[in-house]
Give the backbone structure.
Amino acid sequence: MPHPALPAAPDLTASHLVRPPERPEPGYWAGCPGVRYEPDRDRFLLTYRERRPRGAAGGPDRGWRCAVAESHDGVGFRDLWSVRSDELGSPSMERLALLRRDGRYLLHLSYVDPADNRWRIDALSAAAPESFDLSTRTPVLTAAGTGTEGVKDPYLLETGDGVHLFTTVSRARPFTAEERDRAHATADIHTTGLTVQPTALALSPDGLRFTAAPGRAAEALDVGPAGSWDGYESRITAVLPDGRGGWLALYDGGADAAGNYEERCGLAASTDLRTWRRLTPDGPWLDVRYADVVSARGRWYLYYEWTRTDGAHELRVAVLDEFAGLRPDGSPARA
């Protein structure tokens, strides 16, 4: 199905600060948002991450803390639950993904596996967001189990077909001995430039037990051609119906490993959630990363991680009447 012309990017000048960085310095971030809105409870549930630069004094560095927070206005949040990387014995954590289904809450954690320095995803289940127990976590996807060099940054979408899990994967390829030694020496292959980072898809009946084709067969959104703005990474961060019977995704793109910490947001389209077409091959749609969006109270709430002039990252939200050519009820904004 052909997709209409690229919609206008939203104006973010009137956005609101949700979480500031720990310090106003490069390497200190608050971001990686994921958002859910519960109409029956009229509340927003937000997952986010805090990061420190490598070698920071005073405790764990890199992705050292993740949290689930609650809000009744979509702007001011209070933490319900949190986890530190040292509780997992991990060098770093990345994005969380939260889903409410069958009266319970499912939380996916992505973190560096201390056993092999490769990214992995585990799951927790609880009756309430404040009740997650790390001792009950179960494996969801690992590098070894997916035939990749790492899997992280989960995004969960439930449809009539089950739970879809979109993840960033580090594509496996033959390594020389020197490359193999270097690939996971820093516990983050994304910064090495040794392989590209597309988005893969796995499916589950319950959000806990996932099946996916191994390796490249699981990839749903490929990176762009070499030399393009998204030729190194294509990380799906949000998926929503496009109002025309298909789907629209926000994805983070990067040209190379040097831009790993400053990805920008593009758009992709799909008719089946399995195969995605990049709508922004010539450049990003928004200069933000980890964008997620939810319709609530007759408005759109767009959460994202934004780079400040001091080099730190902060978590912000823009409240919009229209997003990507759609009204909050999901209908096209223009005929």
Summary: The radius of gyration is 18 Å.
